[in-house]
Design goal:
Length: 299
């Protein structure tokens, strides 16, 4: 098709009147214009129809005016301007293509960034879940340890039930022979360690067998004090001193626990006139004690 257009242009060039008198420079300039148009058609995307029509029109004018150097130069300038416009259009189109490619790259990077953000969020959730799981595991381990301690206390109490004829004394506390203790001492040994001394009968038990982690009695502690209260009613103690060792939670907590024990004994029927608080200084850490002063079996 391009060869056909070139052939038509050459025919026009040779057929127009006055061609014989055209100078060689004008003829060469016209041939160069034809070659530039053909090169533009070969080297780039298709030329828009309106632009191509304008270039052909300029070539026809150059062909017809080649015998008139002044008009030929005007026609040649118009052709060059239109060809320069074509180059600018192609440059703008190439720039638009480049910008379009950059926009696509930005969109792709944006999607990748969002995907990475989502993955990062998932990883943080997994880390938080593992952290919470670790915290729950530590909490469960603490509960298991507490349950083990309670189980050990219960095993000690059951061992006392199985040995009502001779209970094992508390480690570190020298127990007096059963023959020197009052009769109710054997019953108390089921729930506590009993030691008869010159100042009275010492009824000692672990604090954790009565309380949890605060100043409130546990369910086992309530049952233990209720049973002990029933036995204490068989005595004629002139005074029952309630003592709690101050370690490890401090003297204030020890006093509150002693008050809780005293109130519970009074609620279980022990006369308030014989109940009193006493300092826990000197007791082994983690123990509570009832000191029965001038105690003897009730008639």
């Amino acid at each position: 098709m391009m060869r056909a257009r070139h052939f038509i242009a050459v025919v026009l060039l040779l057929a127009l009147p006055g061609i014989a008198v055209a100078d060689i420079a004008t003829t060469q300039a016209l041939q160069q214009a034809l070659q530039r148009l053909e090169k533009a058609q070969r080297s780039g995307p298709p030329i828009p129809p309106a632009t191509l029509s304008g270039l052909h029109s300029s070539l026809r004018m150059m062909t017809s005016d080649q015998v008139n150097p002044v008009l030929f130069q005007v026609d040649r300038a118009i052709f060059n301007a239109r060809l320069a416009g074509l180059r600018e259009q192609r440059q703008q189109a190439a720039e638009q293509d480049r910008l379009s490619g950059l926009r696509q790259q930005v969109q792709s990077l944006t999607r990748q960034h969002q995907a990475l953000q989502n993955e990062y969020g998932k990883l943080r959730e997994q880390l938080a879940s593992k952290t919470m799981s670790g915290a729950r595991t530590q909490h469960l381990q603490a509960e298991i340890q507490q349950q083990q301690q309670m189980l050990q206390s219960e095993e000690q109490r059951l061992a006392g039930l199985a040995q009502q004829q001779g209970a094992t004394p508390i480690p570190g506390v020298a127990a007096s022979p059963l023959t020197t203790q009052p009769g109710y001492g054997k019953a108390l040994m089921v729930y506590a360690q009993v030691r008869a001394a010159s100042d009275g009968v010492h009824v000692t038990m672990p604090v954790n067998s009565l309380f949890g982690s605060d100043t409130r009695l546990s369910a086992d502690g309530k049952q233990r004090l209720q049973a002990i209260s029933g036995i204490l009613k068989q005595t004629a103690a002139s005074e029952i001193l309630v003592r709690v060792a101050p370690q490890p939670l401090g003297a204030n907590v020890a006093t509150q626990r002693a008050e809780t024990i005293l109130r519970t004994l009074r609620h279980n029927g022990i006369p308030g006139t014989v109940l009193a608080l006493a300092t826990g200084v000197g007791l082994s850490s983690g123990t509570a004690e009832l000191l029965l002063v001038n105690a003897s079996p009730t008639p």
